[in-house]
Amino acid sequence: MRNKFILSIGLIIVVTVATFWGLLDNGFTNWDDNVYVTDNPLIHSFSWDNLKEILSTFYKNDYRFITVLLSFMAEYHFAALDPFLYHLDNLIIHILNTLLVFCLLWKLTGRLTASLVASLFFGVHPLQVETVAWVSERKGLLSGFFYLQSVILYLLYMEKPSGDGGGGGGGKGLYSLSVATFLLALLSKLTSVTLPAVLLLCDYLRGRPITLRSLKDKLPFFFLSGVFAVDTLFMYKDMNQLGSLIPLSASQNMLVTVRNLITYISKTLLPVNLSVIYPHSEQVSLLAAEFFIPVILLIIIIAVVFLTRKRTRLLVFSFLFFVVTLSPVIKIIPFASGGSTIADRYMYLPSIGLFLLVGTAFHHFYLWCREGEGNGRRAAAVVILALLVLTSSVLSMRRAEVWAGSVSLWQSVTETNPLHARAYMSLANSYSEEGLLEDAIVNHKRAISIDPELADAHLNLANTYYKLDRLEEAIKEYIASAQLKPGDGKVRYYLARTYSEVGLIDNAAEEYAVASELMPEDGDIHYNYGNVLAKLARYNEAIEEYRLAVSILEPWADLYNNMGIAYAGLGDIGAAAASFERALEIDPLSSEAVKNLSEAKRILEDRATE
Asked: Could you give the CA distance from residue 276 to residue 501 in angstroms, rounded to a whole number?
């Protein structure tokens, strides 16, 4: 048995590495990798201020996943923004998780073959690609790593004699480690809150009755789970992130939940047309096949599970493991954040339940094959398994290529969902980052043709036109974006800036006035508004805007030089000279400030001699 265990470990490692080795050549994407890694100043140095920020606050409207940011910080220290190390670490964690799945299932079932088969599919299934290939989904990998450890440590703790004849529950060190790793899982991703329920399922599978003693063992787990869940719910409530993507009644929301469950099962059995975004349904009704068929299928599945509950606990355990671990993300409580109710990454841990059923089915099939004469049927069983694993592996290799960069990622989404406007907008942004501005324009226009009210697409198209110095076209798109989002100060600022550059100064002043009201803490807006007001000879107003800019921004020579020019326009040469002098204190080499100060002093001298 020991040799079989070692061979199984080796096979898991070899197959998983072979499947995902190609992703080590991938780069970062603009889907959150910029937010959490490439443009995230918190990970760019091991400073006390950065550590304090990571340990004490929410980041980018997300859960405070401390372990994840610390891992990024360590990688940045050694490799800066070389994506190789980030992808290598993702792969290593996934391999470790796959081995932990193998150990957990073997401990729960005692069936080496079933555990091996389930682990192989966990390691190489296409649904896992998003979690492994996406650098920002380190959250799912690390939460899985600590989650699986916590469950295994708890099971080891339960196997230790308690010393009181209670039948297990000894080894307090193991128990403490289990609680500690659960805490680390929660600090990686909130979906780990399901672990206490999984511990109850493990008790059920092992035939351990639910007693006060068994519940007492889990109190620290339930306490931690409750604290983190309530904390995060309040956080989302404060940010107005509780709610649905579309208005749904309780019954409609349940239909979406059922549809999602069946979709995940079908994607596991037939992993085709995978995408990083799945569009949500605008019309939710039991009469629609999209929802009616899943309801019927789920009723059948529940009936089978219920009717077989006395013959085998494994089917009940596997199905409930799948449902319980998926429960935080199947929109039982809908969150307004995110553009989809379904995502491949959500299946990372829940897939274990389904793969355990696959492994168990193969285990019984192989036993049946062994009962036949000769080795033909056994060989056929192994060949069938090998083909299935190989097919899954090849599909994952191809899926990993999609994650090579931002352009390939969003191209795949538009191919799978050709009517998804935001996918075209993201593809356009990717082209823009690569400097392919004409391609960016084409895809922004596609996004707008699909959804004319997509304000961000109009804004991004306007910015692209601006980069190409096609200012008239930029103005048209800025206006369209401003009409759709009149409260967006940044759009009004960009529009004002472009009006100014084409010489429409009055229009620029109007837009700067709106932008300054919407974004009063933006010093650049006040500075540029002051410049426009000065051109209109509205010097008092210009000076006021310059003063506001000074109160917000670090001082620079041009700001004080322009303020001096405005004072000169009012005839206050003394104040003008003081501003020019301040400009030269900041930048003694400012030729314009030198010239203006010289002229101001000449005027003051002339006045003194009159």
From this structure: 40
Where residue 592 falls (left for φ over 0; alpha for ψ -120 to 50; beta otherwise) is: alpha
- Tens of pLDDT, residue by residue over 298-339, are 999 999 998 988 888 999 999 999 999 999 888 665 544 444
d(CA 342, CA 259): 10
Structure tokens at 366: 């192989």
Cβ atoms < 10 Å from Cβ of 243: 15
**Cβ contacts of residue 586 below 8 Å, gap of 6+?**
555, 556, 557, 560
Amino acid at residue number 78: F
Q: Residue 487 region, left (φ>0) first, then alpha (ψ -120 to 50), else beta?
A: alpha
DSSP 432-452: HHTT-HHHHHHHHHHHHHH-T
In this structure, the number of other CB atoms found within 10 A of the CB of residue 461 comes to: 27
With H, G, I as helix, E, B as strand and everything else as coil, classify residue 299: helix
123: tokens are 């390691």
Which of helix, strand or coil describes residue 45?
A: coil
Q: What is the pTM of this model?
A: 0.88
Tokens of 265: 């099962």
Token duo for residue 281: 């349904």
Bridge partners (DSSP) of residue 291 are none
How many residues would you count in the chain? 610
Compute CA 310 distance to the chain's CA centroid, rounded to the nearest angstrom.
41
